[in-house]
Amino acid sequence: MLHQLATKVFRILIIFLFVSGGALAKGPPDTVVLPDGEYRPLLKVSEDPSKRIPVQAFELDVYPVTNLEFLQFVKNHPKWKKSNVLSLFAGSEYLQLWEGDKKLGSKSNPKAPVVFVSWFAAKAYCQAQGKTLPTEAQWEYAASASEKKKYAAYDDGAFQRQILNWYGEPTKHPLPDIGQKNKNLFGIYDLHGLVWEWVLDFNNAMVTGESRGDRALEKNLFCGSGASGSVDPGDYATFMRYAFRSSLKANYVVSNLGFRCAKEKK
Fold first, then answer.
1. Distances 222 to 208, 210, 242, 248 between C-alpha atoms, Å
2. d(C-alpha 36, C-alpha 239), whole Å
3. What residues form DSSP beta bridges with 103?
4. pLDDT digits over 80-109, tens only?
5. Can you tell me the distance from the alpha carbon of 152 to that of 129, in angstroms, rounded to the nearest whole number?
6. Where are the domains of the chain?
7. What is the model's pTM?
8. Per-residue pLDDT tens digits for 203-231
9. CATH code of the domain made up of 37-264
10. Cα distance between residue 151 and residue 156, in whole Å
C-alpha cells in the first residue's frame, strides 16, 4: 500500500514539474524565464514556408510597465519628464494623459500600462532596470502562446480571431489594471488585449529572427519592409503588427502603445 501511494505521489510530482517547472522557470519577481523556443517570421527565410528560427532562452516581464512605475522612473531621471524631454526623443504628446511632470491625470490609472511613451523613453526605462526592450523575435515568440498552447498563434484559428477582435476595438482611457486577464502558457499577462508594445527592432521586418543577432540591427530601425513572400498570408494579426511597427519612428508616442522589458540569459 505504501509503495503504491509513493508511486502515485511521484507520478503527480513529475506531471507537476513537467507542466509548471519545465517551461515556466522563475526569474526575479514579476519576471518569467522563457525556455529556448522558436519564432515564425512574417517573411520567408527559405524555400520551406514551415521553417522557424530558434530563439534562445530569455527573461521577460510578466506585466507591461505601469504609469506608477514610469512615474518613479521620471522622478529618478529628470531628463524624461514631460517638461524636459527633447523633441528628438519624444513627440509633443509624450505622456499626454499625465497632469504634470510628477502627477498622473484622471485618465492615467496608476496600475494601467503607461502609454504615449516613445521608443527612446521605453528603452531608457529598461536600461535603468538593467534590462532592455525585447526583440521582435522574443516578443513574437512569447506572444504566440495562448493559455494552453505554446504556439497557438500559428495554427489556432480561435486564438487568432481573439487577437483580431481586440485590434478592432477602440482604445478607451483610463485603461484597466494590468494582470486582469489574458495570461498565457508562460504565465505572462497582457501581451494581447490591453496595449500594443514597443520592441527593440520595431521598424525592421527584414530581420534574421535570431534573438541575439538582431540586437545589432539598430542601424536599420527606420527601414520598413514590404509584405511580399509572407509565410502565411492568412495570418492577419501578424500582418497588422508588422504594418503598425513599420509605421513608427522612435520618437513617436501613441495612445495605445506601451512596453515591457526583457533580459537575455547568459
1. 16, 19, 13, 8
2. 25
3. 100
4. 999 999 999 999 999 999 999 999 999 999
5. 31
6. 37-264
7. 0.80
8. 875 444 444 444 443 433 333 333 344 44
9. 3.90.1580.10
10. 8
